[in-house]
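General statements about sequence and structure are easier to judge against a single worked case. No coordinates are needed to read the tokens, only the vocabulary itself. The sequence in question and its structure tokens are set out directly beneath this paragraph.
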Amino acid sequence: MIRKLLIANRGEIACRIIRTARSMGVATVAVYSDADAKALHARSADEAVHIGPSPAAESYLVGAKIIAAAQQTGADAIHPGYGFLSENADFAQAVIDAGLIWVGPKPASIRAMGLKDAAKQLMRRAGVPVTPGYDGADQSAERLTAEAEVIGYPVLIKAVAGGGGKGMRKVDSAAEFDAALESCRREARASFGNDEVLLEKWITSPRHIEVQVFGDSHGTVVHLFERDCSLQRRHQKVIEEAPAPGMDEATREAICAAAVRAAKAVDYEGAGTIEFIADASEGLRADRIFFMEMNTRLQVEHPVTEEITGVDLVEWQLRVASGEPLPKRQEELSINGHAIEARLYAEDPATGFLPSIGALETFDVPTHRDDTRIDTGVRQGDEITPFYDPMIAKVIVRESDRGEAIQTLQAAIADIRIQPVRTNAAFLHRVLALDAFVAGTMTTALLGNHPELADKPPLSRTSLANAMKLLRQDFQRATPTWFGGGERMQGIRLNAHPKRSTTIYVDGLAHEVDWVDDMASVPVPHGTGFERSDTGFTWFENGEGYAISLAKHGTGQASAADGAIIAPMPGKVIAVDVAEGQDVTAGQRLMVLEAMKMEHALTAPFDGTVTELKAAEGSQVQVEALLAVVVPSAE
């Protein structure tokens, strides 16, 4: 068995691996960058080694530094987690060449599945159904354009070395193809160092179904059933569940058997996931489910599989890497109940899901709930930086059936209180209430068809009344609070009777609130709570935070109403499409900002002329920096 394990990753997954390793008596070594010097994973491990500056390209993506850290600390194995170097065959080989145990599949297996075009060709030979498309060697724009016409629009452009939604674009018409190809290649080149792409037919009623597979060094491969990851936003998974709703036993047997064949075709060892796209226009059918790709690593959503099977997949990884056979045979694995996972991101839905950075002054997630599992890599007081993925936690539940699991997850998310960093908690709460999701008939297009889910709803009248009462009470007297110790308020008591009508400000907007003079307390509804601030407090309702005060305070948000184009976050300008003096039209792209591994296009707010251009391609900019000025056209 492995004695000391170095985790070549950070955040939530590093903490997750540390927990299992510790339970097995395996010592752990963390690595950290400048930005993560005080991070939870660095403090949780038995040892921690600094590996460089904050940018991942200078720390977590430098394999030589990670191997040196393992040798320096006497670690005998390296676990890559997911992301970063987890699917880098050259790094895996370097780990093995250094005399260390690689907790993952053989480098040859990673290479075989690492490029989507080659993987699809291999799967065809193994008898695994694949999506119609083009994966040829000719990468000229002319050939790709011609192939798109043959396939028929809409088509999907995908980076052959991609993952996580990076380097992926849906194209609806020939007129959009060139621009989408350029953007896809640029993002793929920046993310993976490879700008080659393939084309796939766009499935009009797609469900994303994936199968967890596991192989050992003794030639055994098993599956641990399927997951449904259809709830996605811009190709990024948001909510995952297992088993897939609407999956009958015959279809399950067919798709899981295909996944095992796929894994055996590359002599697979360790944890892996075979991803399929299903045409769900007539429900889930075995003859309408196609191979997309294989992820040769542990997946973000692995906890839902753990919850329904009772298996610790990280423990299996460590045992298999140590040469042991799989702990269970296929016939010993079964599905027990239904599990759902929601990804909690530091991002603001109201601003197009732009990442939100800063200190987690309040970070209260429902760890007190016996029915909820929280996997996180942060704690209260930690800093969310612009250098890494914005996922800060995963909220996972398991119940006896899907309906109960949805209700439990909604209740858990309603208890989330985070500020001042913005999160998608309230968005997740609203997603779980969608009729199509509750019915289990969702497709990957569902969230894109409901942009209103990103809108911040008005505060309910009950919460508004409670907020007003809280403001009018004597702030010098100790009052119950939602934070510290996990106690829940039963009501808000008042010392004095305020006037019947009061003006309070919610996120800077005035509200007149009436109340009944003889009410001494008002029950606080489930899913609400508050946290005091210098100017009032933040009222929480179903994961959404509302700034409450008796005086109007500015929001601090920049606006493009006057033509000023402001950086919504720190990042790097990777493209500038206009010049000073150029006329532009409303919605025209001016430049592209890259932050937290995603591209964000900044567009003209109206027809006009670019009179100032403050940013150049390649420059780093800070949040709220002035990037350009557009003066409106004369009437």
In short: The chain has six domains: 4-103, 106-126+207-334, 132-201, 337-454, 461-549, 564-632. Residues 170 and 179 are 11 Å apart (CA to CA).
